[in-house]
Design goal:
124 residues; 13 strands; mainly beta; 4-stranded antiparallel sheet
Length: 124
């Protein structure tokens, strides 16, 4: 089982930036970031496949960047030009292989290991 621990969330004004980190133990190399706002379903934000391809939800493409360190022990999400609609609990996930979702590849919601989440709040 993989253990994941997110950090880096916080409160920021619209247009600001945050960088989320996720410490990952284990060898599940399909990784991604998801988010869940109150009253809404959890949604994929960014995916990083086993061979290094990246995928983004349309709502964050061009503003968010997913990457990891060379040792593959820390997953990052750089978030720029933040908007109030980005407010949510952000989770990192890891899976053995990625699953095709909405034209991209992300860890499976069903089979992934998950962190506990970090809150991001963007004020207007």
């Amino acid at each position: 089982q993989v253990q994941l621990l997110e950090s880096g969330g916080g409160s920021v004004q619209s247009g600001g930036s945050l960088k989320l980190s996720c410490a990952v133990s284990g060898a599940r190399l399909c990784r991604g970031w998801f988010r869940q706002a109150p009253g809404k379903r959890r949604e994929e934000v960014a995916g990083l496949t086993n061979d290094g391809r990246t995928y983004y939800a349309a709502s964050v493409k061009g503003r968010f960047t997913i990457y990891q360190d060379d040792a593959k022990t820390t997953l990052f999400l750089q978030m720029n030009s933040l908007k109030p609609e980005d407010t949510a609990m952000y989770y990192c996930a890891a899976d053995l292989v990625c699953t095709s979702v909405n034209g991209g590849y992300y860890p499976s919601e069903t089979f992934s290991d998950w962190g506990r989440g970090t809150q991001v709040t963007v004020s207007s």
